[in-house]
């Protein structure tokens, strides 16, 4: 990203189950900033392709869908459908699509929708690749066992059958893939503050994040101003 942006950018990275999505949403609400779950953008492109009847393997169609992606596409209620997941996996390996979506994420951060004064982005490479000049960078982590327990509980509460041991195995396998991949591996940015959430509840994580952001940027939630 060229130059410093006027928008305040908060980057939240970390592995699955560390609590970054929950925290990022709360921070966006507290500061009245735009929120972007960077993990949904490939699903949104896949959903657009399915709408048009195009194949996810059609690189030209996938690139067009990526270029036409709108922030409202990320709010669709069908992004977790199995068909959308399959399409997302196919488009995610296409370099031209990845580049287009990198640009989308950077535009979102620099010029948040609805004229918001800032943006909170969560993912795995926000602070290292997408927004290396973010005003505040947090890297959330937690033990694999704690993260698997949270995911297991979440699945059960949503009515999905879940086996803890299998969830833990999946978490560890995903950590290995994300940390060892050649492109944008999962790791904290050099200037990120690491926050271990293993023994913290959501309110405690939120309180610590607010303190860290205030120390780094001087920004406080709108209700505290």
Description:
- This protein is of the alpha/beta class.
- The protein contains nine helices and five strands; from the N terminus they run βαβααααβαβααβα.
- It has a single domain, classed as P-loop containing nucleotide triphosphate hydrolases (Rossmann fold, 3-Layer(aba) Sandwich), CATH 3.40.50.300.
- A five-stranded parallel beta sheet has the order 2-3-1-4-5, with helices on both faces.
- The longest helix is centred in the last third of the chain and has 17 residues, at 164-180.
- The two termini are 30 Å apart.
Classify the fold: give the CATH topology: Rossmann fold
**The biggest beta sheet, please?**
5 strands, parallel
Cα(first) to Cα(last) distance is 30 Å
Task: Give the uncertain stretches in residue-range form.
Answer: none
- Please tell me the CATH architecture by its name: 3-Layer(aba) Sandwich
Looking at this structure, what is the CATH superfamily?
Answer: P-loop containing nucleotide triphosphate hydrolases
Helix and strand content put the structural class at alpha/beta
Helix content: 40-55%
Q: How would you sum up the global shape? A: globular
> SSE string, helix = H, strand = E?
EHEHHHHEHEHHEH
